[in-house]
Amino acid sequence: MHEITAANLHNAYGGESMAHMRYRTWGDKAEKDGYPNTARMFRAIHFAEQIHANNHFRELKDMVGGFFCNSGAVFGIGPTSQNLQGGIDGETFEINEMYPTYLETAKFQGEKGAERSFFYALSSEKTHAAFFQKAKAAVDSGKDVQLGPMQICTVCGWTHEGDAPDVCPICGAKKDKFKAFP
Ligand SMILES: [Fe+2]
Ligand SMILES: [Fe+2]
């Protein structure tokens, strides 16, 4: 694999792994703060980040040994509103800067597997930013967010509220590949 795309996969793996842990922690905090739906949103999205991390890791299956992962991470366990803003900030960076750059680089270098993995992540992060914005608006007005069942595509991490679709719009996986957070 080309070195720059491999480094981008390492960095993206680090970023997704940390987002996975952070959303778990912030989900527990939302539960304590009295926002069960916001907690469920964090837990559903934490699972989506695990899918992305696993996809990136699998693309690196032939790279053996230790590597540095350079990834931005948002820190702090504040009130749930602040944590949601942290989620919005992290997702927005991934949507506007990180994944488009990684995706175009993978295309340029002809790295098809990495291109697919970056595309799956980019597509999901767009939904995550919107979910966190919706939850923050509710929490800032003193309420928990109204939230139907959350559905995560276990192939690409695409995140959806409501019934699972017959086919994932991002990767084409069938309905039975979705995991629900009801
Ligand atoms: Fe995300
Ligand atoms: Fe999918």
In short:
It is built from 4 helices and 3 strands; from the N terminus they run ααααβββ.
List its traits.
3 strands; three-stranded antiparallel beta sheet; Ferritin; binds fe (ii) ion; mainly alpha; globular; 182 residues; 62% helix
Provide the fold topology.
Layout: H1 3-32, H2 36-59, H3 80-108, H4 112-140, E1 150-153, E2 159-161, E3 178-181
Antiparallel strand pairs: 1-2, 1-3
Helix pairs in contact: 1-2, 1-3, 2-4, 3-4
Describe this protein's structure:
The protein is mostly helical. The protein has a single domain (3-144), classed as Up-down Bundle (Ferritin), CATH 1.20.1260. The chain contains 4 helices and 3 strands; from the N terminus they run ααααβββ. It has a 3-stranded antiparallel sheet with strand order 2-1-3. Helix 1 (3-32) runs antiparallel to helix 3 (80-108), helix 2 (36-59) packs antiparallel against helix 4 (112-140) and helix 3 packs antiparallel against helix 4. The termini are far apart. The mean pLDDT is 97. It binds fe (ii) ion (2 copies).
Q: Could you spell the SSE succession in H and E letters?
A: HHHHEEE
Which ligands are bound? fe (ii) ion
- Count the helices. How many? 4
Order of strands across the main sheet: 2-1-3
Poorly predicted regions are none
> What is the CATH topology descriptor?
Ferritin
User: Would you tell me the structural class of the helices and strands?
Assistant: mainly alpha
Number of domains: 1
Shape: globular
Which strand-content bin applies to the residues? 5-15%
Rg result: 16 Å
- Helicity level: 55-70%
Tell me about the largest β-sheet. 3 strands, antiparallel
Q: Return the average pLDDT rounded to an integer.
A: 97
CATH class: Mainly Alpha
Question: Separation of termini?
Answer: 40 Å
Please tally the β strands and state the result: 3
CATH level-4 homologous superfamily: Ferritin, core subunit, four-helix bundle
The CATH architecture can be named as Up-down Bundle
